[in-house]
Design a protein that fits this description.
The chain has 139 residues and is of the alpha+beta class. It has four helices and five strands, in the order E-E-E-E-H-H-H-H-E.
């Protein structure tokens, strides 16, 4: 239960209280020997913001580090980012469909219901940052 989800990365920039780390996220197929010849393999570069006390630790730009988090944090992020919006969109879709019997209006209402949800997430980003934490480990 004490497993960590981790990715190796390189520090791109450092700000007071925040370290920006570039990681390469790969799909399961990318480790395959024929991945270069197949369209299924996928690699994405992403930047992860790690909020920590940059005064206590001595980081340097270009330093190789490992960014990690717990499965609990990953599940919470997935629920907030995808699970709840899906449930809300489908709920609004069926509710409006039952009330109006118009599929176009129901579909549009389901999509528009996501606008205030994601706006609320954006407004609460600082509060959510406390619960969605990453750690930096030196390589």
């Amino acid at each position: 239960m004490n497993q960590k989800i981790s990715h190796s990365g390189i520090i791109e920039s450092i700000e007071p209280g925040c370290v920006h780390v570039r990681i390469v996220q790969t799909s399961a197929c990318s480790a395959c020997k024929v991945a270069g010849y197949c369209n299924a393999s996928e690699k994405k570069e992403k930047t992860v913001d790690v909020f920590c006390d940059t005064q206590q630790r001595h980081f340097t730009v270009g330093q190789s580090v490992t960014v990690s988090t717990t499965p609990k944090v990953a599940r919470r992020a997935l629920i907030w980012g995808f699970g709840l919006p899906l449930v809300m969109m489908v709920g609004v879709l069926f509710l409006v469909l039952m009330l109006t019997n118009d599929e176009g209006v129901a579909a549009l209402s389901g999509l528009l219901a996501l606008v205030p949800y994601y706006l609320l997430l954006w407004l609460m980003r600082n509060k959510m940052r406390e619960q969605l934490t990453f750690e930096i480990e030196y390589n």
